[in-house]
Hints:
CATH class: Mainly Beta
Number of domains: 1
Radius of gyration: 18 Å
Strand order of the largest sheet: 1-20-17-22-14-13-12
Shape: globular
Helix content: under 10%
Low-confidence stretches: none
Oligomer: single chain
Strand content: over 45%
CATH architecture: Sandwich
Number of helices: 1
Largest sheet: 7 strands, antiparallel
Amino acid sequence: MKLLQTYQGSWAEHGIHPIFDSRGPLNWVRFSLVTLHQNHAPIMISSGGDELAVVILSGILTAEVANHRWAHLGGRLTVFEEPATTVYVPRDSNIQLESETERAEMAVCRTQVEQIFQPFVIGPQDVAVQQRGREQWHREVRNILGAGAAGSVARLVLGETIQNAGQWSGYPPHKHDTEHGEQENIFEEVYHYRLDPPNGFAVQVHYGATGFDDRAYLVHNGDSFAIPGGYHPAVVQGGYRLYYLWVMAGPSGRDPHPFEDPQYRWVEERKVSV
Length: 274
């Protein structure tokens, strides 16, 4: 099963571009990219039995869900600016998307659910931004659908991470593929990457996953990576910034309990000399 999906130039064309669907390596998470061009026909996406999160990567658009209509959503030129604007779409609904700018890009994150909630918009001002890690594993984490979305969202957990040149994220390495109460629970995940400047690369490490070889993957601007299990830290090359959108879902509700690799946990536990 292929975990890394590399960027295809055709994805810049107007339309919906499936990345990880029901034929892929994941059971819980589905992921697509959507590109809209101004003066093209609106795009309609049906949620079916899934809940959706439409994350605006760049551009400005109008979205309609049932009797809700939101105009002038988004606005950032790149993902390295302010946090994303996101539209939540419940199951058994349709969302219509139309670009107000020459081009708009978005990611559609989805998972199967039973509950039905109301559609809503999360603006940049609603996103909880945290600074995590230290030394060579410091990063900014933007929680879009985190703990605060309980009672409004069934399963989806998602956000954005930005790390500066040479920095690690997902570090110390952690996983979330086994049910062990408060110690660990089960969540699949997808990463979607962007780099600044865009001609750079990062290295996605993946190890300890049942049925998959331990490997390091070279990832580029626009690539996406599926994480069915295992540890998954990432590092970006010198001189470049890394962004990735991350989306999680699984059978364990909405409160992930990641388990850190015991052999590397010491780096966070040790004292740092001032």
